[in-house]
Design a protein that fits this description.
With 138 residues, this protein is mainly alpha-helical. Helix 1 runs parallel beside helix 3 and helix 2 runs antiparallel to helix 3. The longest helix is centred in the middle third of the chain and has 49 residues. It is elongated. The protein starts with a helix and ends with a helix.
Length: 138
């Protein structure tokens, strides 16, 4: 991807991730640490019971992190497939004898469309992630 397209995509995704972290993940982390501290205060429990208690506290956050990671991987895969399609189109055009400037222009426009399409997917992906994060039992 051209640098400008890559920077735009990176900024958009980072903004989404920061929003999710600030509004959801951070709160879950706070609950996890408080829950874990409560487990450690249980002086009559065995070491094994305390360990299991702490693991239960960590489960919602682990689910949330897995959910976000999975969604971002799918998004990245789709973007990669789109840009690979652009590469194929450019290669075919070049192989058919087109000038390098025309191939570069095609590639720039095609990758730009991929970025535009995927940036437009971010709001719905964010909404879906927020709904899924909210549905994780605490």
């Amino acid at each position: 991807m051209a640098e400008a397209h890559q920077a735009r995509m990176q900024n958009e995704v980072e903004g989404m991730v920061q929003s999710l972290e600030r509004d959801h993940i951070r709160k879950m982390q706070g609950r996890m640490f408080k829950c874990s501290a409560d487990c450690c205060e249980r002086t009559t429990d065995s070491m094994s019971q305390v360990h299991h208690c702490i693991e239960r506290c960590h489960t919602p956050l682990a689910q949330a992190q897995g959910l976000v990671t999975s969604e971002l991987e799918k998004f990245q895969d789709r973007l990669t497939r789109c840009t690979m399609h652009c590469n194929d189109k450019a290669r075919d055009m070049f192989d058919s004898g087109a000038k390098e400037t025309a191939v570069r222009a095609l590639m720039e426009n095609c990758v730009g469309s991929c970025v535009d399409d995927h940036v437009n997917m971010i709001p719905s992906m964010t909404r879906r992630l927020k709904e899924n994060l909210d549905s994780i039992p605490q």
